[in-house]
Amino acid sequence: MRNSGRFLLVFFMLLLGQAVAAQVSFEAKVSKNRLGLNERLRVSFSMNQDGDNFNPPAFEGFTVVGGPNQSVSNSWVNGKRSFSKSYTYFLTPNRKGKITIGQATIEIEGEVYKTTPVAVQVTEAVNNPNSPQARANAIVDDNLHLVAEVSKTNPYLNEALSVQYKLYFSSEISVYNVNEVEMPKYTDFWSHQIPIEKLEIQRGEFKGQPYNYVTWRKTVLYPQKSGTLVLEPLTLNVSVDVPTNRRDIFGNRIYQKTPKVITAGKRTIKVRPLPLAGRPDDFDGAVGQFDLNVRYNKTELKSSESFQATVKVAGRGNLKLFSLPKFNAPSSLEVYEPEHKETVKTNLLGMQGSIEDVYTVVPQFQGNYPIPAVQFSFFDPVKEEYVRLRSNETLIDVYEGPVAAAATPQQNRPQIKSTVLDAPTFDFIKLETELLPMEVDSFYGSQRFWLWLFTPLLLFVLVLLVLRKIENTTVDPISRKQKLAARLAKKYLSSAKKVLGDKGQFYDALERALHNYLKAKLSIETTDFSKDRMGSLLKEKKASESNITNFISVLEKCEAARYAPSTAVRMQEDFDMALTVITALDREI
Predict the structure, then answer these.
(1) Domain boundary residue among 398, 430, 451?
(2) FRET label pair with 472: which of 76, 204, 333, 507, CA 20 to 30 Å apart?
């Protein structure tokens, strides 16, 4: 028992010592990892607890020209103590090549701690060594970074991914006046920028070192074609305050303002095509996780009434990039064009919400009408397989109203018997004719003359009008879809005009109007909406280069201005430009 008690006590002390040791930080930091032979290097050895018996490394390959300079910081924030102590040296290299700064040691509470060796690369002498501007640029390069963080680099076609642009900066510099020089271009992507209402400074790590950072831009992307796609870089113009070696009369550090242009660099996305194996025939490009719901507001009604059928798809995925399955009904039920509704929100995980088509149906005759099931197919990128959903069949009971005409079987018709009449039956008929003189009437110029003359002409005109009416109403499904898209384009243009001043709703409605216009003119589906695809199809339709450029420019303005500052005048200009482009393309196509 004594031995086991001693063992537990020793084990507890070891755990306690490891917990205390885990809280101690002692590390070496250099001002730059690459310098010229005639430049200076600053090395700081920092700790978060006070210690004794500090021993610096030998600094082989360097000459110490300054230091050690000792600084101590001790503060209390929200009842928590924050302590920092550092020893700083200034070195000049003695040779070119890779030089390693050895370990420094410190004794803290009876334990000896060592820093990790740091390697620096010494190059040829520079033209302007350690000048204020050169030193400031070097500090900015070492302490300021713009990074594009991509959630997925190998998504499926039409699968959501996000890109966040984060600006990392160390506590040694101050960053302000950040402006975008070049915005990223998302060619072959459907993009949605998530608005950032307020920039917040957060703590994080960059290459294993503690940094402050702000998230500058967040965008959700849906690739519209497979293969290797490139995300164009984001470029920022930044003003940076860099500390100098000078101090004012009060001993405060003097800072130097340094402008800097930084870029996140290009990122490559490898988009996987959707598999062909197991693809349903009715698949229309839906990718994500969805549920199908088909509902009716009534299933029993009179023929003079109407009912509504709603086809709804809800879940997470590319909700705005595919068409809902069609609602089919017997020919005796008159089905009107559906009203489309969307309740979709977009975050870093992609679109989520629901889309639905509401059909108004009017029966013509009484009877029982079976409504066939609605089928919907989508690809689940998590399961990596196609999923097919099917609604239930429904019976609509129309219990009052006219009955549809039906042919009566020959065998059910009543038999007609011949009747033999008696001779006196027709005695009431006069057998002797009394002739009277007839008044002679001139036919030429009479009402009958003119009626017989113009009736054939009127009938001919009436037949032409009826034929033209039949031609206009009997259209193929493609023409019907084009007319629907054209009506939707006019509807969204009208909607955009109504919400002038509301930036988000305005640019969303304007972008949809342009997309539906192309569906009407080019007979393409929503999944084909890439700018390259639009340009090539418009060229095939003999559209001019200027109108193609203006059309794509309006789309890009919708993407760029949706979450950027915009005025009512700017929105009116974009609306007028969209109307002008559509009118010009109508004349050419």
Answers:
(1) 398
(2) 333
